[in-house]
Amino acid sequence: MFNLEMSSLKRKVNQLFIFFFFLIILFYLPSCSDNKVDREDHIETYPVFKTTTTNISSYVSYPTQIQGTEEVEIRSKISGYISKVFIDEGDYVKKNQLLFKIEANTLEQDAFAAEAAIKTAEAKVNQAEIEIEKLEPLVERDIISNVELRTAKANLASLKAQLNQAKSTYKSIVVNKDYTYIKSPTSGFIGRLNLKVGALVSPNDANPLSTISDTKNIHAYFSMNEDNLYDLIKGLNGNTLDDKINFLPKVYFEASNGEIYNKQGALNATSGKIESKTGAIQLRALFDNSEYSLLSGSSGKIRIPVYYSNVITIPMSSTFDLQGQKCVYVLSKDNILIAKSVEVLDQVERQYIIGEGLNSGEIILAEGVNKVRPNMVIKPNYVDMSNIILSFNTVFK
């Protein structure tokens, strides 16, 4: 009887044990599932994009100063006083337009004297000719010697020379009288007027009366170093430097306020040599300025386009610096971030042009490079790279 009771008690204990065991399992399994979900929830989501190749253009810029194609100094060719000024600073003048009047009273007196000298010389020549006409028959009849006739002819030649000298002097005075009216040698804009009415001028003055700039076409002068020049013309057609420059793309002028001039220019000349002290060469670009919106003497920048074909571009926000190198995070198949160094060829707005280090089709972390670490697992959120660049530009405006 006792044995039966003990056996029954053991069965009940075993049944209770099995009951509690399954009860514990029922509570444990949801807990394990919740822990797994919690771990997955702690994997953060980051934007990524797939790299592709594209064609893109950039530019290099160089400081420049522009000048009119003609910069003419206005100087007086005679000495005298400025009696009248017909223009003002900044005026546009046409070729042969009257600019200044120089008062030179002595020229009038010199002209009268020169005219009188001509008449006197002509009278002496006539008298000498008459004298020769008288002597020639006498010589033919041997009444007088031939020496007297030769002397008379020599005297005539001397008097004719004096007459020619008088005429030359008169012409010179007439020309100088014309120089009292200073006219514009070309069309353009008047610069600063260095002398006013009443000032004494002469051909030897250190400063000109003014300058005239023909700015219908303007030149933009700038310099670049030897390495940049050879990189720029590498692969271009032509045998000489000037030949290769003719194949360079059209250039742009950027004013000092950042505004881009609405007409393109063309590189058309170089200084022909590289300066040994600076290692630079001077170049010149020609721009149409028929609207006269550019002023001679203005400064700015020359922008030369550079074209890239089949290159990979990435947002600047996708990069970080590591030991002096630009790096990106590449996403593996297991969504693990792997740091990778890249070579940057150029920067266009808020994106880098990559030379080496990336292949088309790789997945790159778009943003948040300062919040992650190598070998970190993330949840990728695929985005369009253009949206990343657009948002980056908006932030930095």
TrEMBL record:
Residues 104-169 form a coiled coil. Residues 71-212 form the Multidrug resistance protein MdtA-like barrel-sandwich hybrid domain. GO terms for cellular component: cell envelope; plasma membrane. It comes from the Bacteria. The chain crosses the membrane at residues 12-29. One of its GO terms (molecular function) is transmembrane transporter activity. GO terms for biological process: response to antibiotic. It holds the Pfam family Beta-barrel_RND. Keywords: Coiled coil, Membrane, Transmembrane, Transmembrane helix. Residues 225-305 form the Multidrug resistance protein MdtA-like beta-barrel domain. PANTHER family: ACRA/E-RELATED COMPONENT OF DRUG EFFLUX TRANSPORTER, MULTIDRUG RESISTANCE PROTEIN MEXA. Belongs to the membrane fusion protein (MFP) (TC 8.A.1) family. This is Efflux RND transporter periplasmic adaptor subunit. It comes from Flammeovirga pectinis.
